Amino acid sequence: MTVASPLHPHPPGAVPVIRLESVQKSFTLPNGERFDAVRALSLDIHAGDIFGLIGKSGAGKSTLLRLINLLERPDAGRVVVGGRDLTTLSRAELRGTRQSLGMIFQQFNLIQNATVADNVAFPLKIHGHHSRAETKARVRECLELVGLESKIDSYPAQLSGGQKQRVAIARALAPRPQVLLCDEPTSALDSETTQELLATLRDINQQIGVTIVIVTHELPVVELLCRQVAILEQGELVEQFAVDAPPAQRLTALGREIDALVRRRARDAQEALAATGHATRANAVEQGVAYA
Ligand SMILES: Nc1ncnc2c1ncn2[C@@H]1O[C@H](COP(=O)(O)OP(=O)(O)OP(=O)(O)O)[C@@H](O)[C@H]1O
Asked: pTM of the full predicted structure?
């Protein structure tokens, strides 16, 4: 049996949950010119991963994320999710397959005049096949996952930004997707709320194994949350690496910045550990205890 290691988390030959093959997307600008937002880009994302897409503004990150669930249809290339090429599916088939691709957004996109429970139940209701009791139980389960059971009867206006994003996560998870696509999910949040939300996303990934793909412009988000990162420049994938891999010769400034953040955190953790050791030793000496 082939075993995954922390540095190579995917056993050789493992089939990716998402495979983009030479995807291409252009837009026509108001002046009639064509703009290539994503250029012949290929990428594999494996089941259970937390995968960051980063790059400067306009690099094509959000377009790439929206290509994964075909909110944007590629001009060329294949988008294979769970072994199916989404570009070949009928509308009805695509609607069904989108159930396996949950999505959250920077501005939460909740239904304002519906309660938290109804927001989370929404994807279950529009896709039918669920009894009232099943829907109710699933809503509660998803709100528990994001720590928001107590807000089940609240309306979005009564919630903080972080709580709204948690409701959006619960709603995205309700149909049991394989993948959660996150488009700048923490951009509207302060840094403390961001940290809490990242912890929630990490827990969810660990507990239910959902694959997370996240677009962000905040490098600490990549460093704290992601296992893999892909760096985009002008619609092309220029670099990809495992965030916890030893620092290496990186091709991009963003890659080097991520390495520096990882190194700094490792150093801080070591210093904190050493400080704890010193404190323990000093304490022991103070109390006249022999310290081995
Ligand atoms: N519907 C559209 N019509 C025309 N141009 C578009 C459209 N959507 C995106 N673009 C252009 O494509 C390019 C890539 O956009 P995209 O939103 O994917 O970039 P991004 O890397 O996510 O940027 P940001 O971090 O600023 O959100 C941008 O120049 C954008 O203006």
From this structure: 0.89
